[in-house]
Amino acid sequence: MNSRRQFIKDSAQAALAAATVPSLLCWAFPQKQVVEVPGEDGMILRSFRFIDLESPVEYFNTWLTPTPHFFVRNHMYEPVELDRGMWRLSIGGEVEKPFALSWAELSRIESHSVVNTLECAGNGRALQRPQVPGIQWGKGAVSTARFSGPRLRDLLQRAGVKSTGKHVMFRGLDEVPGKVPPFIRSIPIEKALDSDTLVAVQMNGAPLTKHHGFPARALVPGWIGAASCKWLTEIKVLDAEFVGNFMSPAYRFPNQPGKPGDAVKPEDTHPLTALSVKSVIAGPSNGATLKRGRLAVHGAAWAGEADVVKVEISTDGGATWSPAQLGRDQSHYAWRLWSYDWKPGKPGDYIVQSRATDSQGRTQPATPIWNPSGYLYNAVDQVNVHVA
Ligand code: MTE
Question: Residue 384 Cα, ligand 1 centroid: separation in angstroms?
Fold first, then answer.
């Protein structure tokens, strides 16, 4: 076993032995050792084994998320060695002329930029009732960045997609532990040929970091984060949807809403694609005691392939709603920051809620749509505060 993985395993065991695992990424071991993941300060650690980092909602105050504050979701170990000189991206399957590109060749292809809000399908899972298994993400498995790189369409056109090509599969270079199935997923050809679907090599104007898929990742804007395969090494055009764990049973949603706690048969589900409409309150924080006066309620709202058209705020437990002001920065697929000027009438306990509506006429529901994996949680957001 290589030393890095051994280190992570030893560290994970030591953390467990410490009985309490603090939420921050830096913590003291019993022997007073401190483990840090450089550049990831203040992130909430949801899993140490494969590195899953959540962004605290307090960080939802810039339109573009600084890369060290961008959430990280890994299903397995990140690749150990990634040498840009040795790396190749192959394009094959149902195409006339399969080919492979080196890093230098990929870099010479015209680049395009997309500001995209990337959200993990499991974001908010911890809020589902009854509780469901899986990484217990709170509200922060979502972030926004400007991604840049060649259009996937340009690579597919160069390869010449045959009329039999209906889906496009991505394979990542993850280190697959034991019998775990590899991280391979596919998207329909229409989305693959969309001019905003990228093979991204940059994030916020700098090369992708390793956590986010260096040297290249798929960027499937507006769709669940799982569609955007990191450490991309193979693109394959298929005549049907890829069959594998990360297409089924994972990342599927019931065709019909059921009662909370109900099981759902696999044949009554479909693959997750675009994100739902959603808003999150970044401040004030839940449980805060606030001084009376003018208070700012603020946060972010996003809607996948649709645009956010309004965010409303309630400070009386949902009896009445008032519009929040949407932030200046906007781009298709990107979240809108919003704020609301609140002047509480009298001291006391308040329930503050936010509710977004999008250009497809979708509004956040009061209760989430139940599904056994807790995907696409998007109920109206809420914090409880005390005004002194
Ligand atoms: N790609 C590979 N190769 N392996 C992974 O585990 N996780 C996916 C996706 N791409 C994953 C992957 C999931 S579930 C999400 S939500 C996004 O990457 C997260 O991207 P980020 O870590 O850059 O935020």
Answer: 32
Ligand 1 neighbours, Cβ below 6 Å, are 70-75, 118, 120, 172, 174, 183, 211-212, 225-226, 228-231
293 alpha carbon – ligand 1 mean position (Å): 43
The pLDDT tens digits of the residues spanning 42-92 come to 899 998 888 999 999 999 999 999 999 999 999 999 998 888 999 999 999
Atom of ligand 1 at shortest range from CA of 212: 23
CB 25 within 8 A of CB 36: yes
Of 114, 338, 307, the residue nearest 228 (C-alpha): 114
pLDDT tens digits, residue range 253-308? 999 988 998 889 999 999 999 999 999 999 999 999 999 999 999 999 999 999 99
Query: Which atom in ligand 1 lies closest to the alpha carbon of residue 174?
Result: 3
- Which tokens go with 232? 């991309």
Distance from the CA of 27 to the center of ligand 1, in angstroms? 25
Nearest CA to ligand 1 atom 8: 226
Residue bearing the CA closest to ligand 1, atom 21:
72
Alpha-helical runs (H) found in 18-96: none
Beta strands in 255-333 (DSSP E): 269-271, 278-283, 289-290, 295-302, 308-314, 322-323, 325-326
CA–CA dist 23, 55 (Å, integer) = 11
CB 53 within 8 A of CB 40: yes
| pTM of the shown model | 0.91
What spatial distance separates the first Cα and last Cα of the chain, rounded to whole Å? Answer: 57
Residue with tokens 């960080």: 59
Sorting pLDDT into bands at 50, 70 and 90, what band is 1? very low
